[in-house]
Specification:
about 400 residues; alpha/beta; 9-stranded parallel beta sheet; 8-stranded parallel beta sheet; 8 helices; 35 strands; about 30% strand; globular
């Protein structure tokens, strides 16, 4: 079976700036990415991503000549029931929600032309907006946890740690799971509201206070004295410190110092400097409006709490402050005092008081190469062309 995790244009725009640099199926929600969940549920299938056009050179695309493939929106977050429902579709059958195809069995041309034999209106669990990443993260994290640890034995928790709550749930499931090579010493874990997953070669340092459900992915590091609340996921090679609540950091990013981050989503290769504080609640307690790239305006939400949404390769300097629900694009460098405006397009640098100027692509690529080289990762020519397209889009947005 060939399964194609496709991105339609509206979903792509609704999930910017995080979808600028990756297919939606490579968003991390819970412990693993959406693509990795499909690979777990359907281990014998060939699974491909089909992002929007300018990402296909980098992430590939399947041969579209096959008469029958199973197409699934990359925004759909599967569980056992959703996977079984989609696999049960017969040729020509489609699942739609709000007129957006979520699943279809057939040929690529039929999907493009919306030639469906049978249509089922169903509202599958999926990402509609960028903030759905942190909203859905707690429940998906627990699902991932149960699946990942099933039938496996955790490495022991060293005696230097302090545990609040039971080490197993009522079904006998361990509430802390430690993978090989992880270092966990002198931390406090509260397990009353959910489990704690500590990935391979991760580190939770002394003095950390950790509340489940929470995940430290492979090679991540929680620095001394961090206060880390439930519903958070720290992706591979993430460094985290200070106070973090219900936030997802995709991977390879640092928020290593004191400062507050809550109800937030941070992409890859970002750095959040010492003392950065990000508001997630308006002083008048009103509902939040958030920048939407598709609408090119601020859209109403039903959210009371929302922190920043930060695209890849963006940086926040020492003591930067962000207002509630600030959206920051790709390759943005913020520094200085004061609160910058709550939407910063890609490839900008500056401060609230001094204003912002464009960052030339060449300058951005020099910094990106330097940052990625620290992890032994090279910036490819494909990546360069993607950033050229993002720069062109950002320039068009400012007109």
């Amino acid at each position: 079976m060939k399964i194609v995790l496709f991105d339609n244009q509206d979903d792509h725009y609704d999930l910017l700036p995080l979808s600028f640099t990756r297919p939606i199926c490579d968003f991390r929600v819970g412990i693993t990415t959406i693509r990795q969940k499909w690979e777990t549920f359907l281990p014998d299938a060939e699974i491909y991503a089909l992002p929007v056009d300018f990402l296909r050179e980098r992430f590939g695309q399947p041969d579209d000549s096959a008469e029958e493939m199973l197409f699934v929106s990359g925004a759909v977050i599967p569980d056992v029931d959703i996977a079984a429902r989609i696999v049960s579709l017969k040729k020509g059958q489609a699942i739609l929600s709000e007129d957006r195809p979520l699943a279809f069995r057939g040929g690529w041309k039929d999907l493009e032309d919306r030639k469906f034999d049978d249509i089922f209106e169903e509202d599958l669990r999926r990402l509609r907006n960028v903030y759905d990443v942190f909203i859905l993260n707690p429940e998906v994290l627990v699902e991932d946890y149960r699946r990942i640890i099933a039938g496996r034995q955790s490495h022991p928790l060293p005696s230097s740690n302090h545990v609040i709550g039971d080490m197993t749930d009522k079904d006998g499931m361990p509430m802390i799971f430690i993978e090989e090579g992880a270092e966990v010493e002198g931390a406090t874990f509260n397990l009353k509201e959910g489990p704690v997953y500590i990935g391979k070669d991760a580190a939770v340092m002394e003095g950390c206070c950790v509340r489940g459900p929470i995940a430290f992915c492979d090679h991540s590091k929680a620095r001394m004295g961090a206060k880390l609340y439930g519903g958070s996921t720290f992706g591979p090679f993430v460094k985290v410190g200070g106070e973090v609540d219900n936030s997802v950091i995709f991977g390879y990013s640092n928020k290593a110092h004191d400062g507050y981050l809550g109800n937030a989503v941070v992409g890859e290769w970002c750095n959040i400097g010492a003392g950065v504080n990000c508001s997630n609640l308006k002083n008048d307690y009103s509902k939040i409006r958030l920048w939407n790239y598709r609408l090119r305006s601020f859209a109403r939400t039903d959210l009371q709490f929302c922190g920043p949404i930060i695209g890849d390769h963006s940086k926040l300097g020492v003591n930067v402050m962000l207002n509630t629900a600030t959206v920051i694009g790709v390759g943005v460098n913020v520094y200085g005092a004061g609160f910058p405006r709550v939407f910063l397009p890609s490839f900008q640098e500056g401060s609230a008081n001094g204003g912002f100027t464009d960052v030339p692509v060449k300058k951005f690529l020099t910094v990106a190469e330097r940052v990625m080289a620290r992890r032994g990762i090279s910036l490819s020519d494909q990546d360069r062309r993607i950033f050229d397209r993002i720069f062109d889009y950002a320039s068009h947005l400012k007109k």
